[in-house]
Amino acid sequence: xxxxxxxxxxxxxxxxxxxxxxxxxxxxxxxxxxxxxxxxxxxxxxxxxxxxxxxxxxxxxxxxxxxxxxxxxxxxxxxxxxxxxxxxxxxxxxxxxxxxxxxxxxxxxxxxxxxxxxxxxxxxxxxxxxxxxxxxxxxxxxxxxxxxxxxxxxxxxxxxxxxxxxxxxxxxxxxxxxxxxxxxxxxxxxxxxxxxxxxxxxxxxxxxxxxxxxxxxxxxxxxxxxxxxxxxxxxxxxxxxxxxxxxxxxxxxxxxxxxxxxxxxxxxxxxxxxxxxxxxxxxxxxxxxxxxxxxxxxxxxxxxxxxxxxxxxxxxxxxxxxxxxxxxxxxxxxxxxxxxxxxxxxxxxxxxxxxxxxxxxxxxxxxxxxxxxxxxxxxxxxxxxxxxxxxxxxxxxxxxxxxxxxxxxxxxxxxxxxxxxxxxxxxxxxxxxxxxxxxxxxxxxxxxxxxxxxxxxxxxxxxxxxxxxxxxxxxxxxxxxxxxxxxxxxx
Length: 491
Fold this sequence. Notes:
By secondary structure, the protein is an alpha+beta fold. Among the domains are: 29-182, Orthogonal Bundle (DNA polymerase, domain 1), CATH 1.10.150; 372-491, 2-Layer Sandwich (Enolase-like, domain 1).
């Protein structure tokens, strides 16, 4: 095993012996490197003040993505390039194009949030060769909060950087070959093991090594993107004794499609899978666009959202409605089960000691299947659902031949509405049938009242979403959705 974490800080190779396995990248940058351009705001991945950019090898090139440093553990940097706002200036000290655009449009006021905005815009600039549409800019900036300027000048800066930038002369593009070589030089197949003896962080590089580690340490916390687990440390101040990180396992980052299915490895991020999934399930792609922000989607994984078993996770309800299958592994043994069977009770899942989620199989919808997913939250971006609903329907000869209804936020687990489904199955797809199914939702769910919604509100919204689904599948001309910039239909 290798006992050092290796990464690039800017262009400089770093090899660290990490004793605190849950030290955040933010604390490392500010406390040990004195790179104070990266700010601490919320400490939970919401405000974007701590945004940094990670570069990873991808098919012989470097892919740059914005992430939140406040909930990213330092050992997860192994094999990556870490860029902060201090890395952007040119060798002569002049500003990078992104920074210059912010100056020219007066996009900074108090300046506290500005470095985070700059890094989000930098990732957009590096990853999007042509001037982006307004919706792409809005999505890019949705994870960065500013209380001073409003967003007009910052959006103008995101547009301006393409007008004034010389992309061929960009230093990061000129050094791309060197960066690829440097990242390749620090990449290997060894398992990383760091910590202080009593607390350990393992990062295997192969699937078999991962299986052996999880079997040997069945009480270890399995870590993927850290968008949930990071908050256990920064907000709940929990001490995690043993962590097994799956982000270096190449097999788990694989995704693709067969003639009939979409296969998603447990370490595949929302950002990576979104385009493929949206091509077959447009509503699910749009739902993912509202999940967290770009920084969260670049780190968070679909497999992690499932494995944690949260009753308000946004991905399980639509995946359940679509008929997804979950694949688990324990040592050399594998088993599969319908996704809805994985969730047993609040905080309890059908996962044995030493077992982990390996991948998810999502069937492609049949030609006659109508699928919808809806998210109800107080805020459009970066908000946890009060209710998340998904429906899959096939009509034959005017009657319901197939129906799957799943909700999140309505029970202790993501759950199918079995009674409502029974009220609809085999019956005409009509207002009367839907009304009986809405009444049956009270048998399926007894939601709770909390800070996000009351029990009565949740039950009423669930019924209204079923009614909305009926309207959308029977009245093609009905205006049921608000259309925003870029003609994206808001869920």
